[in-house]
Amino acid sequence: MALNYIWIAFFVIAFIVSLIQLIFFGNTEVFPNMMNSTFDTAKTAFEISIGLTGVLSLWMGIMKIGEKGGLVGLFAKMLSPVLTKIFPDIPKNHPVMGTMFMNISANLLGLDNAATPMGLKAMEQLQDINPKKDTASNPMIMFLVLNTSGLTLIPVSVLTFRAQLGAAQPTDVFVPILIATFFSTLVGLLVTCLVQRINLFNRTLILFLGTLCILVAAIIWGFSKMSTETMDTVSTLFATILLFIVIIGFITAGMVKKINVYDTFIEGAKDGFGTAVKIIPYLIAILVGIGVFRASGAMDWIIDGIRWCVNLLGINSDFVEALPTALMKPLSGSGARGMMVDAMTNNGADSFIGRLSCVFQGSTDTTFYILAVYFGSVSIRKTRHAVACGLAADLAGILAAIFISYLFFH
C-alpha cells in the first residue's frame, strides 16, 4: 500500500472514531484534541527537519570528501561480493555500496544522527541509477527494509531510560533486544529477496549470514560479562572513536588524492542543507497523520480489541499492555519512546510489561518515518512493496520480542 493511502487512512479512521466518541460517549474533547495535535505535530516535524540541517550538512560534506577521496569506492569494492548478491541491480563497484555500508554500520551502533545523513546520501545515489524517477527501485526498497528492520547491536538509549527509571539491572534487556532485532532484519531480508526473486542460496550469502550469526553470538557473550557502567562506557567510546576515525580517514584520503578538502566539504554540505529543506513537507504530512490518529483514541481501541481477541483464544494476555510501544514504533520513534517510558513508570522498570516495552522499542525502527523521509528526499511517490516488506520485518520483530520476553522474564 502506498504512503498516500496510509496517510488518508489515518484521517478517515480518526474521524470515524472521533464521531463515535462524540455521539455515543459524549466526549466533547476529542475534536479539539485532534486539532491541537495537527498544530503540535506540524511544529514538531519542522523542528526535527531544522535540527537535521546541521547534521546533514556535516555528514554529507564528509561523505563528499570520502567520495572524491576514493574511500567510498574502496568500501564498495570490499562489500561487492555480498552486496552484489542482495542488490543485483546496482552496477559493480558503484560508490553507493560504500555509502550504504556506512549507513548500516551507523545503525548497528545506534548512531541515528550519523545514519540518517548517510542513508539520504545513499538514496540520492540510488536515484541516479533509478530508471523510473517517481517509482522506488528494487535496490531502494531493499535498502529501506534493512533500515526499517532496526538491526542494532548496542541499544544505548533503551538502557539509559531503564537506568533512569530505577531498573535493578538495566542491561537485562540487552540480549532479548539483540535477538529480536536480528530476527526482524533476517525476516525483512528474506521477504524482500523473495518478492524481488533474489537467490539467497549461494555460498557468499550463506557464509556472510553464518559469520554474522557468530559475530552476534560473540557480542552477546562479551557484553554479558560487563557491568552496566562498563558496557555504557565501552559502547559510547567505541562509537565516538569510530565516527572520528571516519572523519579523519576521509579527510586524509582527500589530502592524498590532492583534492581541495574544504571546498569539497562545502559542496557536500550545501547538498545536505537542500535535502533538509526538501524533507520538511513529507515529514509534516506523516507526523500530522500519526498525531491525529493518536489523539482520536483509535490506538486505544486497537489495543482493547487485541486484548479481547487474545483472551477469547485463551492465550495469556499479559503482553497486550506493552503493545502500544510496538504498534507506535513503526509510526513514530518519539511516540514509541514515550509509551515505553509510560509503561515502565506505571508498571515498574523491572515488570514484565516494562521490560517487554523496552524489547519492543529496540527490536524495530520507525518504518513510516524512514519511508517518508528517505523517499521524500528523492521525490519518490510510488513505493511498490516497500511498506509491505518493512511491516513484515516489524511483525517478525514484535513476535520475536513477545516470545523471547516470555522466555526470559515471565
Helix-strand layout with pairing:
Layout: H1 3-25, H2 30-69, H3 71-86, H4 96-108, H5 112-128, H6 138-148, H7 156-164, H8 174-195, H9 203-224, H10 228-256, H11 261-295, H12 298-312, H13 323-328, H14 333-347, H15 352-363, H16 367-377, H17 386-409
Helix pairs in contact: 1-11, 2-5, 2-10, 2-11, 3-4, 4-5, 5-16, 6-8, 6-16, 6-17, 8-15, 8-17, 11-16, 14-15, 15-17
Q: How would you sum up the global shape?
A: globular
Which range best describes the helical content: under 10%, 10-25%, 25-40%, 40-55%, 55-70% or over 70%? over 70%
User: Averaged pLDDT, please?
Assistant: 83
- How does the major sheet shape up? none
Radius of gyration: 22 Å
In percent terms, what proportion of residues is strand? under 5%
Task: Tell me the distance between the termini.
Answer: 36 Å
Count all strands and give the number: 0
Low-confidence parts: none
What string gives the helices and strands in order? HHHHHHHHHHHHHHHHH
How many individual helices? 17
Oligomer status? single chain
Structural class by SSE content: mainly alpha
Could you explain the architecture of this structure?
With 410 residues, the protein is mainly alpha-helical. It is 78% helix and 0% strand. It has 17 helices and no strands. It is globular, with a radius of gyration of 22 Å. The protein starts with a helix and ends with a helix. 47% of the residues are buried.
Key features?
single chain; 410 residues; mainly alpha; 78% helix
Quick recap:
This protein is an all-alpha fold and 410 residues long. It is 78% helix and 0% strand.
